[in-house]
Amino acid sequence: MRYTPSAAQGGRAYVLGHSDAELERLARQGAFYADLTEDVLRRAGLQPGMRVLDVGCGAGDVSLLAAALVGAEGTVLGIDRSLQAVDTTQRRAAAAGLSNVRAAVAELDAFVADEPFDALVGRFVLMYQRDAAATLRSLVRQLRPGGIVAFQEMDMHAGRAVPESPEFQRCAAWIIATFERAGFDPDTGSKLYATFRRAGLPDVRLVAAGRAEGGPDSPAYAYMAGVARILLPTMERLGIATASEVDLDTLEERMRAEATAGDHCLILPTLVGAWARVCG
Fold it and tell me: What 3-state DSSP class applies to 265?
């Protein structure tokens, strides 16, 4: 692998940070959405023996999913700007006995490989780019002709509760407002088709999926409260909510109690997957 820094990077500061707590949250999030992401990778055409580049690998969840699909005869390289994330990916791959996964520190639009990849994948990463189409266009150059491009992003505004659940919806509103005021697009998923097209990709295919949750044992309450916990310092700095308003110590249980008492169905943000093949 060859890595050459560029003068102007397309990525911006990750609003959730790279603390140990955030990497642990990413792993829980990865498990929460694993089946939905695996479905996109399968639809896109990941097969045994492929060489895959996972960009913005975070805690390594997509890298591990891709490794299972390409098998021992394939390889996966995860790249991330955070050394902590890279170390976590490598540690989790080793713990899973996956010798075909490795990770490296790199900026997305500054990465250059010695050999082309068969597939380029990523989840919840394009929303953090100043120009997602330009970043994607740069990354596509690392693929062989006919290579696969597959990304999955959120449409946060699609989340809702039926009937209305004020605690859940208030938490969702705080999270969305934090992303927006920090300069990130919480609905990058709904723009994936246009992003792929602007990156010069033909015949773009799409699928949307999501998690619908209810009852006292749902992981949705912990998931939402976990995001709010990591974002709280930014929420306060941007004037969105105070620590006393959020009350992290009771937030998860407040959402659980309200949703359970009212038999609410919680619709989590929609995940949009897009995939295409590079012209050969």
Answer: strand
Q: What is the pLDDT of residues 65-106, one digit of tens each?
A: 999 999 999 999 999 998 999 999 999 999 999 999 999 999
pLDDT in tens, 140-154: 999 999 999 999 999
Q: What predicted TM-score, i.e. pTM, was given to this entire model?
A: 0.91
Query: In DSSP terms, which residues pair with 200 in a beta bridge?
Result: none
Q: DSSP letters of 19-30? A: -HHHHHHHHHHH
CA–CA separation, 230 and 159 (whole Å): 19
**Cis link prior to 5 (omega < 30° from 0)?**
no
Phi and psi at residue 134, to the nearest 5°: -65, -40
Residue identified by tokens 């695996």 is 38
16-to-58, 60, 109, 119, 165 alpha-carbon distances in Å: 11, 16, 20, 27, 25
Q: 13-277 architecture in CATH?
A: 3-Layer(aba) Sandwich (3.40)
Count of other CB atoms within 10 angstroms of residue 189: 28
